[in-house]
Specification:
Elements (H helix, E strand, L loop, with lengths): L1 E6 L6 E6 L6 E2 L1 H18 L3 H5 L5 H4 L3 H15 E2 L2 H22 L10 H24 L3 H5 L6
Antiparallel strand pairs: 1-2, 3-4
Length: 155
């Protein structure tokens, strides 16, 4: 909280007003539906049977690498779908993605021919980190929404 001093034009008194930073993050409904579809597609892909995945005939060392782009994409879609101050937004998306990564690996226990692995969770975390790194670059480089609404320059 910051305190701003403002001098009244009529009587010269100094009034104190409290400026509160908005720490609220919100989901934008249209974008949240895109994130939900992405999340459902990820669940369908990562919780498919081991036989379907082995049918792709990829070398075993490449199978774990698929987690990185999936979770980087999830992180980017969620950063796009959430509005609010930068730091709380980044923390919320990071925590959600890591919890989802843990749930994803845990849920594989119940899928035939699938085994949860710590290295897959690590690959998920690397994907989240990559998504955050790219997302932070977009957040820093993006013009302020208020500037765009006023028709100001985006440079």
């Amino acid at each position: 909280r910051g305190v701003a001093r403002r001098r009244s034009a009529s009587n010269g008194r100094v009034a104190l007003s409290v400026l509160r930073r908005r720490r609220v993050i919100t989901l934008l409904p249209g974008r949240a539906s895109v994130a939900a579809v992405y999340l459902a597609a990820m669940l369908a892909a990562t919780l498919s049977s081991g036989r379907a995945i082995l049918g792709l005939r990829l070398p075993p060392e490449y199978l774990g690498l698929g987690h990185v782009p999936l979770f980087a994409g999830l992180c980017l879609v969620l950063l796009w779908a959430v509005r609010g101050p930068r730091r709380p937004r980044l923390w919320a998306v990071t925590i959600f993605c890591l919890l989802f990564a843990g749930f994803d690996e845990w849920a594989q226990r119940f899928v035939p021919d699938r085994v949860p692995e710590l290295k897959d969770f690590a690959a998920n975390a690397v994907g989240v980190g990559l998504g955050l790194a790219v997302g932070v670059g977009f957040i820093k480089g993006a013009p302020a929404v208020s500037t765009l609404r006023r028709g100001g320059s985006t440079r």
